[in-house]
Amino acid sequence: MWLSAFQPLLTAYTGLTIAPSDYDKAVRFLQHRVAELRLFDLSSYLGLLETQSLAADQEWQHIVQVLTVPESFFLRDKGQMQILKEHILPELIQRNHHSRQLRLWSAGCSTGEEPYSLALLLQQLLPDIHDWDVLILGTDINDKVLAKARAGLYTRWSLRDVGPEVLAYFHPAAHGQLALDASIRDRVSFRRTNLLQTPFPDFEINDIDLILCRNVFIYFDQQAIATVLAKFTQTLKPEGYLLTGHGELYQQALNGLETRLFLESVVYQRIANKRAALPPLLLPVIEAIAPMVSTKTVTDSTAPKSATVALPLTASARMKQAYLQEDYAAVLAIAQTQPSQGTDFETYYWSAKAFACIGQYHAAETRLQDALALKPRSVSCHYLLAHVKESQNDLENAKALLQKTILLDETFVPAYLDLAALCEHEEPDKYQQLHTQALTCLKQLPPEHYFEDIAAHAGDLIHLLPS
Ligand SMILES: C[S@@+](CC[C@H](N)C(=O)[O-])C[C@H]1O[C@@H](n2cnc3c(N)ncnc32)[C@H](O)[C@@H]1O
Fold first, then answer.
1. I want to staple 420 with a disulfide (CB 3.0 to 4.6 A). Which of 41, 135, 287, 434 is the partner?
2. What distance in angstroms lies between residue 394's CA and the mean position of ligand 1's atoms?
3. How many CB atoms lie within 10 A of CB 304?
4. Candidates 11, 62, 68, 228: which one to mutate for ligand 1, based on the most atoms within 8 Å of Cβ?
5. Cis ω on the peptide bond leading into residue 238 (within 30° of 0)?
6. What is the pLDDT, as a whole number, of residue 273?
7. Measured between alpha carbons, how far is 14 from 12 in angstroms, rounded to an integer?
């Protein structure tokens, strides 16, 4: 009853739908708010939300902070990052070299990793960036994530997929966090925008060359997607690009947009006013796009780049490959093909990683418990479970799990660093001790020693430790 009254209002205001796995949480939240605000019943609460008032605005912030998924990380989706780096951004730079203007928008940017990733890519691609007028704008509906984005402070978890060339832009900061260098941080501006309710194009959001709106529509109602898509199309420059998460526009009419197919992902481009002939497709065209979430093809990374090879890989090997290509939908789709009886450790583990990456922490935890039942001493499972707990704000259990990870493998430096970060504030002695232990371990390991769980080499981690 509570949800059937609340859901239409939520969707009308934000576009969001509530996943069945979140029904209980949503009802508990509503009951709590009604009690906290000393309201008579749910209708009074819904009445408050419908007013145009500061109180309603604050209440909507409470709601989005509880019901949205803020999961994000740097250089998320390597395939799309490659398309941006090798094709789209160079094309935009070339196209705009007379005006020296570039306008990029990360819509639904959460804690800022996505627009900062754009700034990091531009740093490599545009050596004379100071002579350009560059807008990199990050927007989100949630004030809390925007405050974090502006601060530019991250844990190693947000940097789990980056190499040394990106880590070089981070410095050790308080509470074991890593601070993004001001030269990159100051290039990005942030502002609150509700994709559904805020009217745009507006004074700032207009004539955009590239919109990234990834992993946002996945939580949206289809009609809301259509509305936002039409606004995006009006906001893009002719031939400007839109990137969404994989398959997020499946079932949508692409009025005014056309698809460009790359091996790694579909991207959308606003049709030019005067239709110029399109340049030839940049990469081999995917013959058919599966009418499912994933458009990626699992390829053999050791094979020549142009060849798409169907190798007789095991399911878990395919899951790992799909995970490394950040195609989490494919990981979960492969898991679903496995018989529920006798599911193996790897299937649970890669499913858990995929669920954690899309912010479905409860599902991730269940898979990890299943994996740990099969391998109780798995270091990777304990470490990932610690991060799931941390993401759920269960810091005590996160600490206990990191401690256990260290007991299981005393050379596993990522656990020392993350535990140190969690202890710094309240247990400064322990923080120091953990850092010293991490440094001692790192010095004993060869620089090329690879920590697969955080995709980093020992040599990269040393420079992130305060000396
Ligand atoms: C999973 S995060 C995606 C972050 C980033 N784009 C990425 O892919 O890593 C989804 C974000 O969309 C935001 N969001 C949800 N509904 C929105 C709306 N109506 N307007 C603006 N942002 C919204 C949420 O607050 C959340 O931060």
1. 434
2. 23
3. 7
4. 68
5. no
6. 64
7. 6
pTM, entire model: 0.69
Q: Hey, what are 78's tokens?
A: 């390597």
The whole-number pLDDT of residue 160 equals 86
Q: How far apart are CA 293 and CA 32, in angstroms?
A: 35
Is-contact 191 107, C-beta < 8 A? no
Is there an atom of ligand 1 within 6 Å of 64 CB?
yes
The CB of 17 under 6 Å from ligand 1? The reply is no
Instruction: Write down the pLDDT at residue 30.
Output: 97
State both tokens at 432. 């120091």
Amino acid 201: pLDDT? 93
Strands (E) in 406-451, as ranges, are: 450-451
With a 6 Å cutoff on the Cβ, whether 243 touches ligand 1 is: no
Cβ neighbors of 321 (< 8 A, separation 6 or more) are 298, 299, 301, 313
pLDDT at 456: 80
Splitting the chain (467 residues) into consecutive groups of 10 residues, what average pLDDT does each group show?
Answer: 93 95 94 95 96 94 95 94 97 97 98 98 96 97 97 92 92 91 97 96 95 96 96 96 93 91 92 47 27 34 41 82 84 85 87 88 90 92 93 88 92 90 84 88 86 83 72
Burial of 98 (0-12, 13-18, 19+ CB in 10 A): exposed
CATH class of 78-270: alpha beta
User: Could you tell me the CA-to-CA distances from 261 to 243, 266, 277, 285, 453 in Å, in that order?
Assistant: 11, 5, 16, 6, 31
* Residue located nearest, by CA, to atom 9 of ligand 1: 72
CB atoms within 10 A of CB 79: 18
Q: Can you give the pLDDT at residue 315?
A: 87
The closest-lying atom of ligand 1 relative to the alpha carbon of residue 212 is 6
CA–CA gap between residue 456 and residue 128 (Å, rounded): 30
Atom 27 of ligand 1, nearest CA residue = 110
Per-residue tokens: 436? 């010293």
Distance of alpha carbon 328 from alpha carbon 315, whole angstroms = 14
Q: Which fold has domain 315-462?
A: 1.25.40
Q: Any alpha helices (H) in 152-198, and if so which ranges?
A: 164-167, 182-185
DSSP H helices, 37-142, are 42-50, 54-67, 78-83, 89-95, 113-125
Q: Where are the domains of the chain?
A: 2-67, 78-270, 315-462
Find the DSSP H helices in 126-195.
143-151, 164-167, 182-185
